Amino acid sequence: MPLTGIEIFKLLPKTNCSECGVPTCLAFAMSLAAGKAELAACPYVSEEAKVKLSEAAAPPILPVTIGVGERALKIGGETVMFRHEKRFENPPGIALLLTDSMDEKEIDEKLERLKSLKYERVGLTLQPELVAIKDSSGDGGKFEALVKKVVQSTDRGLILMSDSPDNLSVGLKVCADRKPLLYAATKENAERLITLAKENSCPLAVKAPGLEELSQLVTKLTEAGRKDLVLDSGARTVRQAFEDQVIIRSSALNKKFRPLGFPTIVFPAEMTSDPMKEALIASIFVAKYAGIIVLSDLRGESLFPLLVERMNIFTDPQRPLMTKQGIYDIGGPDENSPALITTNFSLTYFIVSGEIESSKVPSHLLVMDTEGLSVMTSWAAGKFVADAIAPFVKKSGIEDKIKHHKLIIPGYIAAEQGGLEEELPGWEILVGPREGAHIPAYLKTWQA
Amino acid sequence: MAFEVPKTAYSGKLRQIKLGSGDKALTVGGETSYSFHLFEGEMPNLPKIAMEVWDSPPEEWPQAALEPFLGVTEDPVLWAKKCIDDYGAEMIALELISTDPNGLNRGAEEAAEVVKKVVEAISVPLIVWGTANQDKDSEVLSKVAELCQGKNLILGPIEEGDHKKIGASAIGYHHTAIASTPIDINLAKQLNILLGNLGVPDEQIIIDPTVSGIGYGIEYVYSVMERIRMASLTQQDEKLQFPVICNISKEVWKTKEVRIPESEDPSLGDARKRGILMEAMSAMVLLLAGADVLVMRHPEAIKLVRGMITDLTAA
Question: For residue A38, is pLDDT > 90?
Fold first, then answer.
């Protein structure tokens, strides 16, 4: 919980030496509280005060990074229960589970899908980020071989899973430079795992049955200096796992309960053997608070909706998703095909392009940058009006693509028709339907 | 510092409303906490799923969605019965597609006769959904209300522009009003107030926040629904303490993402399973945000979602 200026003031030397650049300690405290100054500017602050202040300044759910370089995945760091209150910060990592009891072929196929399944949407690449490698044979040699294989096959982030600290240590030797998440410290093996995580500066998962024991174990780990922790409450039923996610998030945010102020890991892979059901369970945890979601397999039919859901839920409510400005060819249009114009609010684009597609009338769709505003909003804001549209149409290059000079505008901006015909001499401006759903019927009447 | 389960300070409770009439009538609403937060509240009535039936044969449905209903899509009565007998539907949602002025433009009288046939053939609650064309819906839904007096249909969408006419019919012939507004908590509240002023009893209102599926703006309705639930339960906003209905199936199955065959884009996987999951996951997201009634289409998607409701509320 952030401290107030007065609370901070009480921890300062109160000498008013002004060496920090501010005339008084009180003024300095106020600047600190407002985030306008750094504590390091005070040369006389006590160690005790430093610890207290940095603790108070720490986010209620600590961010944790798994992996290195371009593939480094940041999870946690969340500040709200509901996305409308601010926004969700870091989308949960999707992990593929591989075990050393699977046969070679199964592993190869799963890895191949991990690497090949990715989707482009509104300029973003959606893909799974992690591989969870599980020692289920209990054989250190087999586990090591699998870790090696995965490391050679992909540069994604790694989770090493074993009940045996010895085997974890063996697996870690092969991939320590990738800073994998070690799974998991338990009551029984905590000391060994603390050492292993510390020596290799790896993030550490913590597993305990139930939140009470989990809190105690986390306290032990943080006292030993571990800060990069990921929580597993041990729940493997849907209801318990869901409730635990809510309670963990709420404890950290609403009660400022530090022991649960870390991202979590959930295992739909261990909650059902039905792949469809597993996907649906995963969809719950995308919205409700998981940091990492471990899946038994990756298939396009389930991974695609899951990744799109994740993108949707983690969209910043203050900043609409935008499509790139330009001309989009739909259905292979030619020089006699209709040309339509709309705005670059991603939803507007998806709906309009979807309707054009279903009309089966090949078309040119001009998407104009309106800063992500929808047709009516951007029109009302003066961003999607004749003065702005005409220069865009001229520069867009559409004139080289079509023989006719006809442009279809959304029905909601019918008022711009006259203005546009003035600004675009030689063009005929046609007023299309107001609703996307009526586009197919409209296009079917098109004549160049 | 000892661990303690944090509890939300709830001060309100959702109204319970009765849907349909007779033995198979259902009750929805009554939640005292956010959905599935059973550690801090109650969901006395679990969310219900209505199966979608059209009053004219669908022409654009993808194969995967059509398959379970082959042979019955010509006849809404047979279709509704199949949903109940074969797929265990606890409610039916009859979409009056045929009345669309941009389509078949079937008249009110004729459309209402079809509704009457369906409601008389089934005993589960019946939702009747118009085309959101206010002039036409006023005419059609008013006729439907009159002809099916006393059946406690769930009628909608009722929008600000047609709430007087359809609302009056809902009062007069005793049906439940689906108060429909475009993804906005304030508009939702305002329409509830307007319906209240008109005289629609609180026990006959259900909120339709206007939904969309994954990839098509589900995050907007998700947050609007969460805000509605927050206002009802923690800020005692009486004008929002109504159950919520989400007509999700149409939105999902019309998108291009459920249609693309695997042969065209192998990375999207099996088209049938993808469609089922797009519908089931969209429904799941809405359930988490507070849906009380879902309108759904594919029997397998429904089965999956039912399973999840069971699992999330398992003792």
Answer: no
pLDDT tens column, A121-156: 877 899 999 999 999 999 999 999 999 999 999 999
Q: Are the C-beta atoms of B157 and B93 separated by less than 8 Å?
A: no
- Looking at residue B102, its pLDDT comes to 85
- Residue A131 near residue A149 (C-beta atoms within 8 A): no
- Report yes or no on B7 lying in a domain: no
User: Containing domain of residue B264, as a range?
Assistant: 16-312
Mutate to test the interface with B, among A1, A61, A242 (most CBs of B within 10 A): A242
pTM, two decimal places:
0.90
**CB contact B270 to A (< 8 Å):** yes
pLDDT score at A48: 84
Chain A: nearest CA to B227, how far in angstroms?
A: 8
Tally of residues, chain A: 448
Q: What's the CA gap between A406 and B232, in Å, rounded?
A: 51
- A·B CB contacts under 8 A: 163
Catalogue the E-assigned strands of A208-321: 229-232, 265-266, 292-295
pLDDT for A265 beyond 80? yes
Tally the C-alpha atoms within 13 A of residue A290's C-alpha that lie toward its C-beta: 25
DSSP code string of A182-197: EEEE-TTTHHHHHHHH
Whether A27 has its CB under 8 Å from any CB of chain B: the answer is no
ipTM for the complex?
Answer: 0.97
Number of independent structural domains in chain B = 1
Show the domains of chain A with their CATH numbers. 5-57 (1.10.15.40), 64-313 (3.20.20.20), 326-443 (3.40.50.11600)
Chain A stretch 68-127, residues whose beta carbon is closer than 8 A to a beta carbon of chain B: 82-84, 116-119, 121
Q: Is B83 within a domain?
A: yes
* Cβ-based burial of A230 (10 A; exposed 0-12, middle 13-18, buried ≥19): buried
Q: What is the CATH number of the domain that holds B126?
A: 3.20.20.20
